[in-house]
Design a protein that fits this description.
The chain is α/β, with parallel strands linked by helices and 461 residues long. It is 39% helix and 16% strand. The chain has 3 domains: 74 residues, no CATH class; 116 residues, Aspartate Aminotransferase, domain 1 (Alpha-Beta Complex), CATH 3.90.1150; 246 residues, Aspartate Aminotransferase, domain 2 (3-Layer(aba) Sandwich), CATH 3.40.640.10. The longest helix is centred in the first third of the chain and has 21 residues. The mean pLDDT is 94. It binds pyridoxal-5'-phosphate. The site of pyridoxal-5'-phosphate has 13 residues, from helix 8 and strand 7. The site of pyridoxal-5'-phosphate (PLP) has 13 residues, from helix 8 and strand 7.
Length: 461
Amino acid sequence: MNDQLRQLPQIEAMLTSPTIGALIYTHSRDEVVAALRLTLANLRRAITKGDLVQLPDFVGDAFADRLRTVIEQERRLNLRAVVNATGIIIHTNLGRARLAPQAIEAMRDVGLNPSNLELNLTTGKRGSRYDHAEALICELTGAEAALIVNNCAAAVVLGLMGTAMGRTVVASRGELIEIGGSFRLPDVIAQSGAILREVGATNKTRLSDYAEAINDDTAVLLKSHTSNFKIVGFTSAPARRDLAKLAKDRNLILMEDLGSGVLIDLSPYGMTDEPVVADILRAGVDVVMFSGDKLLGGPQAGIIAGKADVIAKLRSHPLLRALRIDKLSLAALEATLRLYRAPHDPFQTIPVLKMLSEPLADVQARANALAAQLDGLVTTLVIPSDAYVGGGSLPQQGLQSVAVSIAHPDMTAETLADALRRAPVPVIGRIHQDQVLLDMRTVTDAELPLVVDAIGHARPQ
Ligand SMILES: *Cc1c(COP(=O)(O)O)cnc(C)c1O
């Protein structure tokens, strides 16, 4: 072991070898030194650990190639594109909604150039960033007014801080959700300075439960969409219309945390459980909060839409600035919202909607094409699969899909899945019964060569 440690060369000495010198010429001295440091440190660690280490020829071409690979890996961004072959369309760990090219174009324009973010071009006076997309949101949802913040979590916090600080919020026990990342509604209500008054039972809450809980301290009736779970069986909750009437009669605000905001009816595609924002406002809910990067198909954002007097109050809240949306997200959001209007068909132009509405035959054709291209590399089987909307929407509703199941002669499913994650463009699938499944509903035709490349170069580490 000590012998091998002694055989590791000095970095300064290596820099004078012709092969390494050539690398400095094609790359840069700093990168070559860093790659040498990293590679030698790895070897030293392996030797010290007692692993059986075969020392390379440090001045040979193979070692120079190894350094070149390290340099190229070090040049890659940490945050980068992957192929989502999980079958979960809005995957929070994979960045949620893909954006439409029009949204990217808008971000590019506003990112590369100065913009009228807070300048009113008509008057030449100071404008507000909140004005750019407000009219569009109102048009698409029927709201009187709207406000956009950093994300839906921020929207809920602002909504509660702005209307119920020091007062009581009445919410059903069946709707006190945790949405992941330890965002728990009861804790959020408490942190917003409001006092939670829980009513009803886990499975059943009646209108009278809400009515009996209201007193002089009550400010808000809060509904929340139980987006990531479903209680089935002996259940009931009052209709929004009835809650709205109760709120109106008692001079309270009816607020709804919707999570995934759907702007158009998805029932033609079999998705009947996801409420449409316009319907919720029409039923009498005063303000609704929803995400920009879930079913809406845009960037991370939190949208608050509803009654003008409530929105005006939130808009003047001193903490709004701490929750505000940035210009790039705002640009992408406006561009995405415009794709919901004529002449566009949102099911063609918004990637999330296109993916969930893609005909099964097209998904099947993509699976067949991939299997054909993998012929000779791995064993494939084209099988039916269930895809999901994800992002806390429609947790139970599987979307018919097709997956390519792959098995490698020399690798277990785990090893193959690891190798696919290490590809230049990582491919993320799922493992089922010792096979790697690549679901084709969340992969585009343009991504197939990346998948073939990742599989073709997959090696156990
Ligand atoms: C997803 C979700 C949120 C949080 O949305 P973000 O945009 O991630 O902050 C809040 N409430 C519900 C019901 C959700 O589903």
